[in-house]
């Protein structure tokens, strides 16, 4: 297997007395989908934010390996480099589409922003690319000039995904991308994400408390509880043969539901 | 030097501001010139004029003014509006400097909303009054964030705005304060001059200084600096001008204002730059003395 894209060790993060991350280690390889599951408050979002460089851990390191194979410490590369990474090699899909979209900017402008940020200066070309991506995420291209606030929740989320993937990032962080949506809408969105990710060969770190979503999308699963990774392994192994009592409980509660 | 009451400057220091304040503003100006297009904060002083009347420009002018300077002040291209007249009178009172309406005669031109039509020279300085120095303020309300965007030259958002304009109107609808890149590095608002004037900023021989009083910012474009209006390859920047010629001087290239001539909807176009227009009218009158219309030869404008 190739060297990991992202490699984190010894991550610790405390909010007062709360240990949001307690000696967490994780790595993710190119093209791999890794799900982080666990109950509310277990530290999933904190882990994602620390890995993406949005929050500094109290201890531990996160290394990112660029396409040339050079490893960079995410928390030591400086804001300018991190921002450049965030709009080129990386992407972030938020649970709430409003946090990831510009609500006052048309669908086409939302998709085009990352292209323009990395230097695209041909209006027709940007528009063509935006049209293409709207189709890919199953949004009628006729709505290219409409504002996202006129879109349904599921459409907004698909628009956010198009806007993130348009520059073909190597690694995408997703925090509960299907949270807050109807079950049928969720299923359709998960199928779409799976198809796009497989097609583009993107690595994804997916935070979810939906075990079914993890099973559908992820190659590997990490189970978190109270800031610790209590179990990790290949998706089928973890879900079909959970070792840790907490994972057993988690899987059992889904089966029962 | 300071002056006692009864001094030639009505009891004020030369050019109104005390020398320490002027030095502070000059330091900000030097920094601004060293980093073209970058907004430098300065400790703006209260001026005997309300914000919106050009207090930023006045402080910059006061800081660079010398006794032998000749000052021209324009407002929307005109020398005779209340704002222009009172600023010129102010400096004549507190600095004793000569005023002029002639662009070519002036060493310092303080302006609101226009760049003169007559090309400026290395011997001149253009001082802009700026109401809002931040070109990103409509797109990103958080000032800390706009500072970060400037620091990282992260200007994709500005292009999103242009994209939206074209998507909505078929062209970029921004007619004033059209954003420019200075020296290929800093995004800058050229103050509310018409986009028509933007090309004049590019490699201008004169020093251009910008003062924003309320926002307490100074920025500058040194002589011969590259100033590019943002655009797309397939939607190039086009300086917009009303299609017509000046009813007074016949200019087909100057920036035109539309004025009403009667209360029945009659209207005509005239040059917005009044000095330019008058000079052209005078030149035409001298060139054609046999003309049927009497030449307005009685008075110089200065
Ligand atoms: N900014 C913060 N300030 C204080 N405490 C915080 C902050 N962010 C997270 N925490 C705490 O850290 C712990 C982990 O929170 P985190 O948001 O990472 O959990 P999560 O697994 O994403 O939960 P959820 O499934 O509800 O989103 C929680 O106890 C939370 O209350
Ligand atoms: Mg969370």
Q: What does this protein look like?
A:
The complex is a heterodimer of chains A (257) and B (302). Chain A contains ten helices and ten strands. Chain A is α/β, with parallel strands linked by helices. Chain A has two domains: 6-89 and 169-256, P-loop containing nucleotide triphosphate hydrolases (Rossmann fold, 3-Layer(aba) Sandwich); 101-168. In chain A, the strands form two sheets. A six-stranded mixed β-sheet of chain A has the order 6-7-8-3-9-10, with helices on both faces. In chain A, helix 4 runs parallel beside helix 6 (153-165) and helix 6 (153-165) runs parallel beside helix 7. Chain A is globular. The mean pLDDT of chain A is 94. Chain B is globular. A seven-stranded mixed β-sheet of chain B has the order 1-9-8-5-4-2-3. In chain B, strands 7-6-10 form a three-stranded antiparallel β-sheet. A two-stranded antiparallel ribbon of chain B has the order 11-12. Chain B has 302 residues and is α/β, with parallel strands linked by helices. In chain B, helix 1 crosses helix 2 (55-64). The two termini of chain B are 30 Å apart. The longest helix of chain B is centred in the first third of the chain and has 16 residues, at 19-34. In chain B, a hairpin with a 6-residue loop joins strand 11 (256-260) and strand 12. Chain B has two domains: 9-229, Rossmann fold; 241-302, no CATH class. The interface between A and B is medium-sized, with 24 and 18 residues. Residues 44-45, 175 of chain A line the site of magnesium ion (MG).
Gist of the model:
The complex is a heterodimer of chains A (257) and B (302). With 257 residues, chain A is α/β, with parallel strands linked by helices. Chain A is 40% helix and 25% strand.
